Automatic annotation (TrEMBL):
The keyword Methyltransferase applies. It comes from the Bacteria. One of its GO terms (molecular function) is methyltransferase activity. This is DNA methyltransferase. Residues 11-81 form the MIP18 family-like domain. Pfam families: FeS_assembly_P (PF01883). It comes from Sporosarcina ureae. GO terms for biological process: methylation. Keywords: Methyltransferase, Transferase. The keyword Membrane does not apply.
């Protein structure tokens, strides 16, 4: 793992294990994760959004992100930055997520 892009893909791979409890699809395929990076101190920083501002599963999703990333040997700590701009839309979802949820 050398380049930022390789590290990002590595972190995204771990984040694919985090399932949105309401939709049953992982947060990467839902398009909720905008960025993931490993900072110098071994801090994994995830920039993401939720499907809605009032999403009741937000704290659970964040806890699951922290749990998955802390299993990676390079990760010493995690920071999850939830942003609302740009807002999430169905257009962010992967083809897989759209098919699984029956979205056209």
């Amino acid at each position: 793992m050398n380049t930022e892009e390789e590290i990002k893909q590595y972190l995204f791979g771990a984040l694919e294990n985090v399932i949105d409890p309401e939709l049953g699809i992982d947060i990467v395929n839902l398009g909720l994760v905008y960025n993931a990076e490993l900072l110098d101190e071994g801090v994994a920083k995830v920039t993401m959004t939720l499907t809605s501002m009032g999403c009741p599963m937000g704290p659970q999703i964040v806890a699951n992100i922290e749990q998955e990333l802390m299993e990676l040997p390079e990760v010493k700590d995690t920071v999850v930055d939830i942003i609302w701009n740009p807002p999430w839309s169905r257009d962010n979802m992967s083809r897989y997520a759209k098919i699984a949820l029956g979205v056209r």
